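User: Write out your own:

AI:
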Amino acid sequence: MSSSDSRSDAGTLAQRAELPTTADVIAGLPWRWRTQGAIFLVGGLGFMFDAWDVALNGFLIPLLSDHWSLTVGQAAWIATVNLIGMAIGAFVWGGIADRIGRKKAFTLTLLCFSVFTALGALSPNIWIFCLFRFFAGFGLGGCIPVDYALVGEFSPAKHRGRVLTALDGWWPIGATLCAFVSAWLISFTDWRAVMLIMIVPAFLVFGIRLFVPESPMYLASVGRHDEADVIVRRLVRATGSDVTEWRRAEVAAPAAAPGTWAGRIAAVTGQIADLWKWSTPLTLVAWSLFVSILLLYYAALTWLPKILREQGLGDEAAFIVTGQMTAVGIVGVIASALLIEYIGRRWQLALSSLAGVVALVGFAWVLEASGADLSATAQALILVFGFVIQIAIPTLYTYVSELYPTTLRASGFGWASSASRWATGIAPLAFGSFLWPVLGLTWTFALTGALVVTAVILMAVLAHDTTGRELD
């Protein structure tokens, strides 16, 4: 080869190196509702039904307690097995999505929680019912991390924060629909119809096949560049972008899938090790934020009706106040989506979560000081909590999903989510049997809030802001 040929090849390589990667192209595409918007809507509907199924637990406990004459301890298993399934599913499905792809994993999680919830309607006894609820929870646990990874990897960098934050807006919508539809069905039928309605999410699979391609960022990350290029070209044409060339980033050879149970256990252990090895500080931040913020939220959501009943309110009044706290969260999600690109991920997460701590502790203090009445101040504080906590949670999901690289995004989010599931599963027992009776309501919420303060400090010291950054 002549020196002029070498110089020509070197020049070509240099020009190629200046081209954008697959991730760069997707990050720079204009937003189009018929393209990325369709993916957001399908993902959002999946998220909505996920919330619907989670909310079912609260309605099923009293309904099945009457139907099968359950004790309080037996009825508790209805929620417990579902939560355990969600905790396991959160990290298992994250790893699956990093191996088989976002689209396939999202489809399977939807089918899993939809079919097993509907099968629960055919249960002859509480134990078979709990078995079905475990597998429904297993699918539920994977839906959120896989959904976020899928939608996030199609979203342009300029809009990704708002898109991922708005995705969480489907949660209070799903929980609210669950309440109204369940109440309507129970007025003329029984609990089995409430379960059977959840076969509807299975039909979303057709929407996924029609409107959601596999993530080209995932395909590129595992070396399937030809497939990724086809999808990127389609996205470029559909959005009217003027990009004509991009380069293929180098990827490591994929590891062979384990064939034995010992190999699978080793793979899961290795997955955790990979997350902590990749970045111990960022994984510590992700886990601490997930555990503390969601612990604060579920502590209020789970115990508020009983707290209000202890104050002398009847069931209907207690449920209405709890519903008001949840409903105002819809406005919080909207505010979160509108503000996140201006305030930034870290600032918005810190301010909203700390405001939630202040509001909840203030609510408890006013409530205990007022005696048997629910004062206007206490009611206002619990509504403030419902508003700001739903600013914090979507921001949390967006921030953590952006901290990890593509090869670890779904599993990183999934493990952080799983850690929070286990924590929120244990917390109700500790709350009801020890903390509240011994420490009182104010100190119990203050102790829970101290965990949030600690997590925010860790974020400020150890983690960077992801606002405006392209996914890698």
Notes: Confidence is low (pLDDT under 50) at residues 6-14, 252-261. The CA atoms of residues 258 and 264 lie 6 Å apart. The chain is about 80% helix and 0% strand.
